[in-house]
Amino acid sequence: MSECSVSNPGDKMMAAMTSKHAAKLSLDEIIKHFRTDPVFGLNEGEVERRRNIHGLNEFDVVEDKPLWRKYIDQVYTRNSSYSYTLRL
Length: 88
Fold this sequence. Notes:
disordered N terminus
């Protein structure tokens, strides 16, 4: 992805932006780019419009390991300074 790309070419809205590019901009430049108000944010109509274009601000998370197993793996690993005990 380029630093700025239009998420929907037919849309007159702002271009999407990578975090790397955004980190180089001032707060005022970010506010202007995303056409928002720093105090009030977006009005409900604009929120709905952007959701229709971009979808909800969420993503699917596939949990490959149960949380308890991740904890156990951190406690009982070969990198432990105490010993090489119990590796499930």
